[in-house]
Amino acid sequence: MKILEWWPLVGAETRDWLIEHNGEPLRPNVIADIMAVTGGTTDSEWWAAESADGPQLSDAAVDWIEAVANDEEPTGE
């Protein structure tokens, strides 16, 4: 599932956290919310997997969220 598909399905708290902490390792509750709406799938286009600091989104997903945060039309994902 692409980010543009799961983005409106996660809770507002998750979307707000992703905007405010864009590019940071994901908190467990954020991961849980994303996994709940995606059926546990981790599309490689938006999921960068584990880093030394914890699970993170891909650079493309970070850019997509930044566009949304800036009221711009996100591309890709």
What's the structural blueprint in terms of helices and strands?
Blueprint: H1 3-6, H2 12-20, H3 28-38, E1 47-51, E2 54-57, H4 59-69
Antiparallel strand pairs: 1-2
Average pLDDT metric: 88
**Count of folded domains:** 1
Q: Main beta sheet, described?
A: 2 strands, antiparallel
Shape: globular
Question: What is the strand tally?
Answer: 2
Distance between the termini: 9 Å
- The radius of gyration is 11 Å
Estimate the strand proportion.
5-15%
User: Class by helix and strand content?
Assistant: alpha+beta
Spatial strand sequence of the major β-sheet: 1-2
Which regions contain 5 or more consecutive residues with pLDDT less than 50?
A: none
Helix content: 40-55%
- Please report the number of helical segments: 4
SSE run = HHHEEH
Structural features, described:
The chain contains four helices and two strands, in the order H-H-H-E-E-H. The longest helix has 11 residues, at 28-38. Strands 1-2 form a two-stranded antiparallel ribbon. It has helices at 3-6, 12-20, 28-38, 59-69; strands at residues 47-51, 54-57. The mean pLDDT is 88. It is of the alpha+beta class and 77 residues long. It has one domain (3-69). 21% of the residues are buried.
